[in-house]
Amino acid sequence: MTVSRSRCRRLVALLACALALAGCRLDVGGELAVERDGSGTVGVVLSLDPEAVARLDELALDPFAELSAAAVDADGWQVTRAGSEDGGSQVRLTHAAGDPQALTDAFRDLVAGLSDDDPALVVDLDLVVEGGGAARLDGTAGLRPPATAGALQDGEPIGPSGEELAALVDEAVTATLQVRLPGPVVEHDADEVVGGGLFVTSPAQTLTWDVPVGDVRTVTARSDAPPVLTLPVIAGVAVASLVLVGVVIWWWRRRG
């Protein structure tokens, strides 16, 4: 699946729109969820704060419509849109793939055909998933600000300089990359890891990297194969949990 230049430009239209919304917030997130067999989903999430939504409404602009149109045109991508209780708005683009190479290629396809002057969330990853589900992830991620505001006069760009635009994006935009690996993480350079543990139904853990503006950072993670929980093991854990709860209740009543 290759996304055309025009589709990619629409996919980053919301980011460019944020440049006109001084003081407003835009969150850009890349998402990768990996299953034990190497399949999974890739996603891009774009969120506007309530102030940005209100100002766009005043201007009768709907950048989400462009993103939705791009997702409809692009093969295999799905789009969902939702509002938040505080008046913000969010759109999520997702793409399912059957193997690690197709997952990482989906990120590359989102920026395929863009020039170095175009804004984009650039995620370049290599993913290996072994037969048992152990995974190895290496690559880079960065948020590229636009080099120009896109306006021309007599064939020459006008408006803020590239450095000014980069500073504006750095102030208004927060970018992250979230990756969920199928097994317990044993090595990483992420800023946060959540999930997993002994008394949970899934050993999968989610790692979050803060993505820099105008630069790239390394993305590295290793995870062991997820344990295979047979029915007797699951039953044993359930019984042990019930016994533990019973002991706690008995002890609490004795205290009373």
Strand order of the main beta sheet, please? 3-4-2-1-9-12-11
What radius of gyration results from the CA coordinates?
22 Å
Strand tally is 13
Count the helices. How many?
A: 7
What percentage of amino acids are in beta strands?
Answer: 35-45%
- The dominant shape is globular
Portion of residues in helices?
Answer: 25-40%
- What does the oligomeric state look like here? single chain
Can you walk through the features of this model?
By secondary structure, this protein is α+β, with helices and mostly antiparallel strands. The longest helix is centred in the C-terminal third of the chain and has 25 residues, at 231-255. The protein has a 7-stranded mixed β-sheet with strand order 3-4-2-1-9-12-11. A 4-stranded antiparallel β-sheet has the order 5-6-13-10. Strands 7-8 form a two-stranded antiparallel sheet. A hairpin with a 5-residue loop joins β5 (120-129) and β6 (135-144). The protein contains 7 helices and 13 strands. The protein has 2 domains: 5-225, no CATH class; 229-256.
Please name the defining characteristics of this protein.
256 residues; disordered N terminus; alpha+beta; 13 strands; four-stranded antiparallel sheet
What's the short story on this structure?
The protein has helices at residues 5-11, 13-17, 50-58, 63-73, 100-111, 162-172, 231-255, and strands at residues 26-34, 40-48, 77-83, 89-97, 120-129, 135-144, 151-153, 156-158, 173-181, 185-188, 192-195, 205-211, 217-223.
Q: Secondary structure elements and their pairing?
A:
Blueprint: H1 5-11, H2 13-17, E1 26-34, E2 40-48, H3 50-58, H4 63-73, E3 77-83, E4 89-97, H5 100-111, E5 120-129, E6 135-144, E7 151-153, E8 156-158, H6 162-172, E9 173-181, E10 185-188, E11 192-195, E12 205-211, E13 217-223, H7 231-255
Parallel strand pairs: 1-9
Antiparallel strand pairs: 1-2, 2-4, 3-4, 5-6, 6-13, 7-8, 9-12, 10-13, 11-12
Helix pairs in contact: 1-4
